[in-house]
Write a structure and sequence with these properties.
Blueprint: E1 8-13, H1 24-34, E2 36-42, H2 49-59, E3 62-65, H3 78-88, E4 92-99, H4 105-122, E5 126-131, H5 134-142, E6 149-151, H6 158-166, E7 170-173, H7 183-190, E8 196-198, H8 218-229, H9 233-248
Parallel strand pairs: 1-2, 2-3, 3-4, 4-5, 5-6, 6-7, 7-8
Helix pairs in contact: 3-4, 6-7, 8-9
């Protein structure tokens, strides 16, 4: 008998990107038909923020706003980033973080810290991009008791996963679960279910090379994670979906 999935929530997407312009609503309908009834959309290129706000309003999805470390420049100013947050008053801050594979590391740190301060002050959850920087992210989190944080596409070690979840940080797993082996599989098993989120990061990281990732792919992610954890994928999808709704503070869609 075919499994009936419901209440899935894609915790991290970029469905506002132009690659979805021709069929964005159809992509969301495909996801909904598969059992993915909610999603969060993150800001990438800050120049596209006005358009992303329009898209989020049209689709009725969560939009997180923030300056991604890839767009931090040497002349990026903290006051401009804070003004962006104040102007948009987002329900979540993101995608923000630290990335050692990209330039302006020190400026990344200043911008990240300022965005965490704003989120902490305004009681907003934070969506974090952490590439070779999990320890630094955990240190920043520790300076702000009560902050709500998820690290998307988590790629840290088992020890880092345990430290993060001991602090109450949510860890989100994406299509890398489809190829999980060794350390990655151990990390996925180590995350407490209460702090586990699932994502597609669509359109990035497609299930098939050369194609476009979609929110509907969340079902395959749930099945892969469930297999690694030896649990029911239907129940896991619903459980992680409920966790995501609480994290983002969105209404229940039962």
């Amino acid at each position: 008998m075919t499994a009936v999935y419901r209440r899935g929530f894609d915790a991290h997407t970029h469905v506002g990107e132009p690659v979805f312009d021709d069929d964005r609503m159809s992509a969301l309908q495909r996801a909904h038909h598969r059992g993915v009834s909610g999603l969060a959309m993150a800001t990438g290129d800050p120049d596209r923020l006005p358009r992303l706000r329009e898209i989020a309003a049209q689709l009725g999805v969560v939009l997180s706003v923030g300056l991604h470390p890839w767009w931090v420049r040497a002349d990026s100013r903290v006051e401009d980033v804070v003004r962006m947050l104040e102007t948009n008053a987002p329900v979540a801050v993101g995608e923000v973080g630290l990335d050692r594979l990209h330039p302006h590391w020190e400026q990344q740190g200043r911008i990240f810290s300022a965005q965490l301060d704003w989120a902490h002050r305004h009681h907003r959850p934070v969506v974090v991009h952490a590439v070779r920087s999990v320890d630094e992210v955990l240190a920043e989190f520790g300076r702000r008791p009560g902050l709500r944080m998820m690290i998307h596409g988590f790629t840290g070690s088992v020890q880092q996963a345990r430290r993060a979840t001991d602090l109450g940080i949510h860890l989100s797993i994406g299509p890398a679960a489809m190829r999980a082996a060794g350390r990655t599989a151990d990390v996925i098993r180590a995350i407490p279910v209460a702090l586990l989120l699932l994502e597609t990061d669509a359109p990035h990281h497609p299930l098939v090379a050369g194609e476009r990732g979609e929110p509907a792919d969340l079902i395959a992610v749930a099945e892969a994670v469930a297999q690694l954890r030896d649990v029911d994928p239907v129940a896991l999808l619903a459980k992680t979906g409920d966790t995501a709704r609480r994290f983002f503070g969105v209404e229940d869609d039962r």
